[in-house]
Structures are given as structure tokens and as C-alpha cells.
Write a structure and sequence with these properties.
- The chain is of the alpha/beta class.
- The chain is 36% helix and 17% strand.
- β3, α2 and β4 form a beta-alpha-beta unit.
- The chain is globular, with a radius of gyration of 15 Å.
């Protein structure tokens, strides 16, 4: 069991790799499909995991991971606990613009077992953005996929003159209003 480290492998030319981490039932595969279907100016690899750590056996063939997206369901305390446990296997340097959190299920307020404020505190404690997301419909998945691709492009170093360090400060204000609405 190893800790994921950024920049421990050489990047592939004009390629970004995203790792989606979340418990079952969060539509990870559908979100991955949506990301791959979007028009983009670079190659994208999407990997899925229910939790971290990733198996050590595949480490030598695993590409460099440019962005980790943790999905948490507001209707499931288990999904939040899975993410919290997985965070221990992420190197601290990933939190310099290469991690974001997706909060899924915010529309069904009656069925929430986790407060959005709790997830916001978690994201803030890791200096990472929290993106409220609904993945139930194709259109909403497409919008989230576009956002994640924009973040991935910067995190992978494919935008000249823009650092992943500046990414969280650039995207935080727009998400803050969305979180307050939930």
C-alpha cells in the first residue's frame, strides 16, 4: 500500500490523467464516459477507484495522475467516510491544485445524511475546491465533465503560464455561491 505522489513519473505528451475515487453508487463510470465524450484539445485517461490505496502490483504500469477527484454522496455517510480514509494515501503535494471534491446528491435535501457544510469544511481543510454536482442526468454529467476537464488541463500543466497552485484561488469564488445555495 503506497501513497500517491504527484510528479513521480514523467508526463505523457499532451495528456492528462484523472483518478475518480468514490464509493459504489456514485455513477463513477457514467462520469468517466461523460469526460471521455467531451471535445477536448488533449488526450485524457480516466481511472476509477472505490477507495485508496491503489494496488501496488500495477504501480509500474500506472500513468502519472494529474488530478484526483473525490466523490461524496450527501445521502451516504459511508461515502464520506470512504473518502476520509482514502485521503491518508494521498501525498500532501497533491493538495497544491491537483485534488478536488464533488458533492453529489444535494438536490434531495430530505434524504441528506451529511450536511454540505461538513463537506465544505473537509475540502477547506485540504485547501481544495468543493464542487456541488448532480450526476443523475446526461446534461448535468456533461457540465461537470467540462468543469473537470478545465481543471485537469491546468493540473496537468497543459495551460501555459497557469499553475495548478493558482487553480483553487481562481475557481473558489464561483463555487462558493453554488455551495451557499445548496
Amino acid at each position: 500500500m503506497s501513497v500517491l505522489k504527484p510528479l513521480n513519473k514523467h508526463p505523457d505528451l499532451n495528456t492528462g490523467t484523472v483518478l475518480l475515487v468514490g464509493a459504489e453508487g456514485l455513477h463513477l463510470d457514467q462520469l468517466a464516459e461523460a469526460i471521455l465524450k467531451e471535445n477536448k484539445s488533449f488526450e485524457v485517461n480516466v481511472h476509477l477507484a472505490k477507495r485508496l490505496p491503489l494496488p501496488v502490483e500495477n504501480e509500474h504500469t500506472r500513468p502519472r495522475i494529474d488530478l484526483i477527484v473525490f466523490l461524496m454522496d450527501l445521502r451516504s455517510q459511508h461515502s464520506v467516510e470512504t473518502v476520509k480514509a482514502s485521503l491518508a494515501y494521498v501525498d500532501v503535494n497533491f493538495f497544491l491544485g491537483k485534488v478536488c471534491f464533488l458533492a453529489v446528491g444535494g438536490k434531495a435535501v430530505k434524504h441528506q445524511s451529511v450536511e454540505m457544510y461538513t463537506l465544505k469544511q473537509l475540502a477547506d481543510s485540504y485547501s481544495s475546491p468543493l464542487i456541488p454536482a448532480e450526476l443523475e442526468s446526461t446534461e448535468r454529467r456533461s457540465v461537470i465533465a467540462q468543469r473537470l476537464l478545465q481543471i485537469l488541463k491546468v493540473a496537468a500543466g497543459l495551460v501555459p503560464g497557469v499553475s495548478a497552485l493558482a487553480l483553487s484561488s481562481l475557481i473558489r469564488p464561483s463555487f462558493k455561491t453554488e455551495i451557499e445555495r445548496c
